[in-house]
Amino acid sequence: MSEIASIAAAIFKRATGKQRFLVAIAGPPGSGKSTLAASLHEVLPEGLSVVVPMDGFHFDDGVLEQRGLRQRKGAPETFDFAGFDNLLKRIRSGEPDIAIPVFDRSMELSRAGAAVIAPEVKFILVEGNYLLLDEKPWSGLGERFDFSIFVNVPRFELERRLLERWREHGRPDDEARAWVAGNDMPNVDRVLGSRREADLVI
Q: In the chain, what are the domain boundaries?
């Protein structure tokens, strides 16, 4: 059995008897959270799972400019935590047809109501950098999840991946390096340096 299939089997088993089962997939930027969430979505029963990205709650660049946070985009304080937490509460309550925002990296903005969680969806795969962050108010998210996964990748590999990501998005090499050093890696260090325990570390 593959690692993905094994994780999916563990999730399926733990979810027995539950109407909704929320899984936190956490890790630093560039760790592969989105890839893991998509892979689990593929192997869980068709029509019964959905991926909910935390990135849909990024504040718009205009808001970040007003707050002096444009150069810290992606840090915990640049997200609408209250909106995100409220979404998790609605999901856990079993509310049907919940619209979720999705962050479009090609446009660097969130699209509201870009996806909908249908009533029959049982497995909610929530992925984001700060789901296990041991800082208030993020530390209060623990009770929202039934199972948590932390994707652990060496720091040097994260830096390499992030540089490659920005180059692929068209940033010149010097600009990509400056952004990774001044923005992405501080976020990486925050995730790695202050996190709660996960049920599973991969």
A: 3-201
Q: How far apart are CA 163 and CA 198, in angstroms?
A: 27
**What token pair was written down for 138?**
């993020």
Other CB atoms within 10 A of residue 134 CB = 13
Residue 114 backbone phi and psi in degrees, to 5: -75, -15
Distances (CA, A) of 151 to 28, 46, 134, 168: 8, 24, 16, 23
Query: How far, in Å, are 40, 131, 133, 146 from residue 154 at the CA level?
Result: 22, 19, 18, 27
The 3-class secondary structure across 136-178, one letter per residue, is: CCHHHHHHHCCEEEECCCCHHHHHHHHHHHHHHCCCCHHHHHH
Architecture of domain 3-201: 3-Layer(aba) Sandwich (3.40)
Question: Per residue in 71-113, pLDDT tens?
Answer: 888 899 999 999 999 999 999 999 989 999 988 776 666 788 8
